[in-house]
Amino acid sequence: MDIGTQGLASLVVARALVPRGPWRAWVVVVVAGTISNVDFVSSMLSPSAYLEWHRTYAHSIVLSLIVSVVLAVAYILATRDTSEEKTPARMPALPKAGATPRSAFFIATILAGLLHLAMDAGQSTGTMIFWPVSRQRVALDWLPRVDPWIIAILLAALLLPELTRLVSDEIGAKSRKARGRVGAIIGLVVLGLYVGMRADLHSNSVAALQNRGYDTGQAHRVAAFADAGSPFIWHGIVETERALYEPDVSIFTSSPSDIDNGLTLFKPEPSPMLATAQNSEAAKRFLAVARFPKADIQTTADGYVVEVRDLSYVAARERKEIQARVDLDANGKTLNDELVWVRDGARH
Question: What's the chain's average pLDDT?
Fold first, then answer.
């Protein structure tokens, strides 16, 4: 999920759990909810670094818990003297408005970090949330990279209580309750219901793709990727023995046989060049994380070029795309293998 959405979600968490906390406490919660994105630096280095670091170690539950606790403890220690100051002129760091304000602050900081990981795991880019126990990447495919509906829910949770307060102040009915807390809690509940709806629609889309017949055989693997504009439209990928299909699925499609659109990409025939390319170091690293790899072999004046792409990049509308490129001589010997950026998103 984009950092803007994660920041809004963390702010809603802060308002729900520590509504009377000072702005510095809210900043700590927002930092805890967005700090995992530090691995974006890998995109500035190289495709290899991006593949190794993006949504891997920094996005694990273990590291998120450690970082959240460290941030919370550091803030409490840094403001301890202020919070214990009895002079009215000094504002307490964590007001004593709740039964356990520091406990609520700890929970908010931890929840913001975990909510970040949950939203990322709900997308199509694999997230290594169980590291170091497992290097398996979790990609539920429920959510798009940027979801305007989630942004609208979070903004409503933050802004509607402010509008209500303005109206109440105008008519002179001032409330002593924590400002915006109820709206934030309702926003988080609505967010959970929305994601649950997305999960159910995703399951229906996958079932529709699995139940359809394909000219090149039975579907071996199926995936449906979320559309940013509508939760009722999904971008599918279906792999059979000889081809990969890229149909779009509408939840309102009348029958599985109506799913007859998108590209059909035939797999290359087995060959010594393809086998050599797949055994190269770059291809091995790429295939270890690629969900729907598609290879193409091109003949050049000096030999062959084998390019291996992951179709899920395009189906999920990712901004960045990596492919493995292997150069072979006329005898099929590897000359060069590397991971490269595909910036134009052009399809084969």
Answer: 87
